Amino acid sequence: MRILVTGGLGYIGSHTVVELLANDYDVSIVDNLYNSNIHVLDRIEKLTSKSATFYQVDILDKEALEKVFQKEHFDAVIHFAGYKAVGESVAIPLTYYQNNIAGSLNLYELMHKYGVEKIVFSSSATVYGDDFAVPFKEEYGLGTTTNPYGTTKKFNEIILSDLAKAKQIGSAILLRYFNPIGAHESGLLGEVPNGIPNNLVPYIARVASGKLDKLRVFGNDYDTIDGTGVRDYIHVVDLAKAHVLALDYSFKHEGVEVFNIGTGKGYSVLEVLHAYERACQKKLPYEIVARRPGDIASCFADCSKAQALLGFKAQYDIDKMCEDSYRFTVMNPDGIDK
Ligand code: NAD
Ligand code: UD1
Fold it and tell me: Is 316 a catalytic residue?
């Protein structure tokens, strides 16, 4: 079976392509290389000894995207392509709505036109907003999103649900990721943030490699174990494996289904920092600063639905996530540049 993976050279996409190839799926990737580069494709091939077909296409370019659908038949799509920086989405919302909504609509129209029935979509825990109590359960539905990025995820969930109801799509599996971190244990694939990272683990990685002087911990007066924010971190390889299970599930089911993909366990900022210290075997400097606007105290998943219906259970713990992140950081000081 051939799977079209949009954004397949990005952080989560590349790890997912590795798992798809390992599970004997044929893979075609569409990526415009906005936030990735072509060396990722070589690394995927090196890791799997298999190759994926690559199209350097922007999903906003409907004509170019249609040529891909004319060339090959796909049994399903996994849709990662999009922009993901929360702060940037507040500054340039139109760009986010264009890419994440208009780009997705192009894809959904072509899926309908060419009879591609199944889709797995990258959603986010951000769709719960701050309306609900932890642990977040799928049945809570959609909360009040607090930024345009989150709103694009919420709109995509609504659009795909409507398409499934109208039977214009056979099945749509909406995966709400919690906080993906870590890297492939080979050190060949991982996350390469642009500029100074906004997210916790990429920031700590730069402190560990000496590129940034210290972590700023955003608040220690939350109602949590040590006052710092608690999140449900999940190893990117576990997350990639969840996509294969979701895809398998989609071939046996009709309609829309939502799944939280996390570990179900929350760690505080300081707990993550200390896990990273164990991984890099040195003390990492930090200072406590004011809360970051828009942050919530705790965010973690109820993962029982994914376990019951997909058979998904995350394997890797926070130490493994930090060890793999650090290995990738050491092996790729300038990112994936060759
Ligand atoms: P990423 O930026 O590493 O990967 C996205 C890929 O899509 C990149 O390779 C980029 O070049 C490509 N892309 C972007 N716009 C495109 C376009 N118009 N046409 C073709 N390709 C395009 O991001 P990621 O962390 O791998 O995230 C993948 C998906 O998961 C995104 O939709 C993101 O919103 C979602 N998600 C990510 C996180 C996270 O923490 N990383 C959490 C929840 C949800
Ligand atoms: C962020 C996004 C969210 C997205 C998620 C996916 C924001 C506001 N939200 O969530 O939409 O779905 O990533 O991974 O960006 N922290 C520090 N110092 C730092 C960076 C972070 O103390 O330099 C703290 C934060 O306050 C938070 C925790 O670390 O308590 C995790 O932050 P981050 O990695 O940015 O993820 P989220 O805020 O959960």
Answer: no
